[in-house]
Amino acid sequence: MLAFVTWPVPAQAAAPTTGFRFIDITVPDGTVLKANVIEPTSPGRHPAVVFPASWSLNDLEYIAQADALARGGYTVLSYTPRGWWASGGEIDTAGPKDIADVSRVLDWLIANTTADPSRIGMAGVSYGAGISLIASGHDARVRAVAALSGWSDLVASLYGGDTRRLQSSALLVGSAALLGDTSDEFDAIIGDFYANRNIAGVKEFARLRSAGTYLSGINANRPAVLLANGYGDTIFPPNQLVDFYGALSGPKRLEFAPGDHAIPELTGLIGLDNHVWTSVRRWFDRYLSGIANGIDAEPPVVLRSLTGGAVESYPNWAATATSTRRYGLGEVNWLTGTGKLGGAATTGWSRRTWFNDDTVAAGGIVLLSNGLQALTGIPPTAWLPAVDRDNAGVWIGDEASSVVRIRGSATVHARFTPTERSGTIVAYLYDVDWTGTGKLITHAPVSWLNATANTARTVDLALPATSWDLPAGHRLALVVDGHDGLYLDENGWLGSVLFSGQSWVDVPIR
């Protein structure tokens, strides 16, 4: 259970509340949703916030934040989506039933509380974020959204780089089996996902549950949208939100910080001071309460670096980098098994890499590794000399003469010839110190299915966006292998790829 701790509200904003009351909301198909409400005791209508609970959690999740908002003048309703805990029905995974439920929750809110129907916002973490974003494209009464650790493209979340996510999907499916009531459709889709069949059907299921699918409706309704995520989110990687943010036409703000899924905002859920929840409060104060607090005049793209330093703000995503530096992949030395990274891409060389075994290069453990990085500043690491050169391609650059400020999404342009019809490669970008220890900056996989074997392929793999300062004296390194515990790869035991020239890494620099 969440601890009941509240975060500070300015003295002049604090006000008596009704306390929490627990309610049932019955939607038209007879499903009963469990919820709670807290309101200010001051007379008149109040701005309102609706919190859908996260995946595997219930309406108690937001008690600390709901109490703080109510003391600041908001009517707040939190509810448990269908299929979870004591709510009725079956899990709909932010599908049409869940979105219809939001409108019924808003109907109940307006009819039974002091909520002002013209000043309603929605907020949530993870599942609650996705439901809130999608609902804002269907119900124009949602005037502001704060989506924390959410998604805009569920297809990319499941199949980014055409590679299935293993640990993140297992975590979600396992918690649903323990704490929810899954539908036959959900069970069938999950079975297809793990069996790698009916891929088109699984992707269509995910597409219908993606905010990007309803972008035209969201832009027509023009809610004020705040997006906040971690760079290392292993469930909903950040690049999809960059694209979605750029396509929004209403008031908007994008914040990235160190951490994995739901980690940047986690301490705020137990009432501690937290920069994400501070932004949420300021966002609603501006767009629901009409307080001129200046957040709408600030540069809306906010980056907190993985390597520390001052918070950076930019007018748009394109402004985060001022140039792109190309690091060409050079010939691999037959003795050391290492190639040069940097300068112009060269031709006339090749290097075969077998994918029989994994290497020490790894993205970590879902939630744990990147979550600890947010708390300790220590990312997943690998000692580069220990990377098996038979099972990975390794390219290392020269020592940086000055700090290299990486901002944005690096792209790996790789040319290779696979021996198998299906396969996977995983690219890791490292910051390497004088001892050969590499700190993971960012990484991503890419797969191919049922292609023509022994035919050259070229891929452009966009790595998850990051903010990282490579210190002077450190070197940039690229490692490419075929396995990572985070993913379900497509490599066979005897599979290999032959890397060749005209390959490079494009790194956004500021």
From TrEMBL:
Pfam families, A to Z: Peptidase_S15, PepX_C
Matching InterPro entries: AB_hydrolase_fold, CocE/Ser_esterase, FrsA_esterase, Galactose-bd-like_sf, Xaa-Pro-like_dom, Xaa-Pro_dipept_C
Superkingdom field: Bacteria
Entry keyword set: Hydrolase
GO molecular function: carboxylic ester hydrolase activity; dipeptidyl-peptidase activity
Keyword set includes Hydrolase: yes
Entry coiled-coil feature ranges: none
Domain Xaa-Pro dipeptidyl-peptidase C-terminal: 281-505
UniProt entry tagged with the keyword Nucleotide-binding: no
Family the entry assigns: Belongs to the AB hydrolase superfamily.
PANTHER family named among the record's database cross-references: DIENELACTONE HYDROLASE DOMAIN-CONTAINING PROTEIN-RELATED, POLYKETIDE TRANSFERASE AF380
Protein name: Xaa-Pro dipeptidyl-peptidase C-terminal domain-containing protein
Organism from which the protein derives: Catellatospora citrea
